[in-house]
Amino acid sequence: MRNNIPLRIVSLVVACVLFHLDRAQAYPEFIAYGYSSCLTCHFNGQGGGPLNDYGRALWSAEIASRLLYPKKMSDEDIGNQSGFLGSKELPYWIRPHIKYRGLDLVQQVRTHDQSAKYYQMQTDVGATFQDPVGKYLATITFGNVPSAAQYASGQAGIKHMLPREYYVRIEPIKTWWIYAGLLDKVYGLRNIDHSSMQRTHQGFNVHTDSTDGIAESESIIVHKVMEKWELAVDAFFGNPHDSADYKQSGYSTMGEVEVGENKRLGASIMTAKSNKLKKDMAALHYRQQIFKGSSLMFEYGFIQDSPDGAEKTMGSYNLLEAQVLLTRGYFWKTTVERYNQEFKSSVPDSWHWSTGFLMFPAPRVELRAEFLNARQFSNLRASDDSWTFLGQVHVSL
């Protein structure tokens, strides 16, 4: 990211790819409730995608606000209403899911250039099919997949429906899990911030042809999950919706180990290559409970891009986030991020600071409201601050 690019253009580019980062969501912050592995709540042990029965019940009975329920109703009763059809039980072998996510984006807040637009970020429908004990399962999700140009022009809609995720999962040996299909690549903290430079520059929120490829890739993943540690290895082969020049293949691995009660230290590495780009990354990450419901997480990583026919670049990024429980279902969240494309004093550091609220006013409903401040500076120049407001609604059935 060069310092001769106006910051408002950078903001627009980021906005055009915001819609895709939701595919990576796994709420790693919920280690604050004592849940350190994503496998506890998700069919996908790396997080993201549909919730399992326990995850649905946990969202309803422990995380979401209960203000809409009478006091005499127990948390267990609330959890029992968390199924796709509420309290009506479906056959064990099928678990449907529907998800909608929309974003209200206001750029250049309180300036003459202020602009606002509403984006349909996600419209997903799908189902998971499983055996009685969940040792074998298959899941598929269809979603709106517009091009970046269609998305930026406001033409994105449910008419652009394609398979966004599909895979089979087996547990051949206890605590060993194998996945095969179209999944998110294994790497780093899958944080929930749609404006995050962390995921943007890793290349995990780009959905159309780009040298960074696409977040989801046809993969074979082996995942070992133990009480105190876990390790995942991913061999990926590209996304079938991507063109041949941009289809990435490679491998990645991510591991975490418990270093204290509700404290996890991890590391990730990845190498990915297409005809247009070779991308190598490594990161250290850490997350912990501050007190029940509140968390702190950190990631520091290196990114080396080797574009075809262009100069290699080596840079770094860091993410620091605190999420504090205010009352059940309502959190205050603040994040500080930095990104530098190259280790050169003439190349500007990009800084983001955001603060706002994450809210679960009722089961199946999530709201967010936050302000994001962006700036760039180097030893040659500094940009003016830019403020953006992001409001979001998420409904999951």
Q: Spatial order of the strands in the main sheet? A: 1-2-3-4-5-6-7-8-9-10-11-12-13-14-15-16
N to C succession of SSEs: HHHEEEHEEHEEEEEEEEEEE
Structural class: mainly beta
Count of distinct strands: 16
Q: Termini, distance in Å?
A: 39 Å
Q: Total number of helical segments? A: 5
What is the helix fraction of residues, given as a range?
Answer: under 10%
The residue ranges in which pLDDT falls below 50 over 5 or more consecutive positions are 1-24
Strand content: over 45%
Q: What general outline do the C-alpha atoms trace?
A: globular
Computed Rg: 20 Å
Report on the structure:
- The chain is mainly beta.
- The protein has helices at 7-17, 53-63, 75-79, 148-152, 197-202, and strands spanning 94-107, 115-130, 136-144, 161-173, 176-184, 216-225, 229-236, 249-260, 263-273, 277-291, 294-307, 313-327, 330-340, 349-362, 365-377, 386-396.
- A 16-stranded antiparallel β-barrel has the order 1-2-3-4-5-6-7-8-9-10-11-12-13-14-15-16.
Summary keywords:
mainly beta; disordered N terminus; 10% helix; 16 strands; 16-stranded antiparallel beta barrel; single chain
Helix/strand layout:
Layout: H1 7-17, H2 53-63, H3 75-79, E1 94-107, E2 115-130, E3 136-144, H4 148-152, E4 161-173, E5 176-184, H5 197-202, E6 216-225, E7 229-236, E8 249-260, E9 263-273, E10 277-291, E11 294-307, E12 313-327, E13 330-340, E14 349-362, E15 365-377, E16 386-396
Antiparallel strand pairs: 1-2, 1-16, 2-3, 3-4, 4-5, 5-6, 6-7, 7-8, 8-9, 9-10, 10-11, 11-12, 12-13, 13-14, 14-15, 15-16
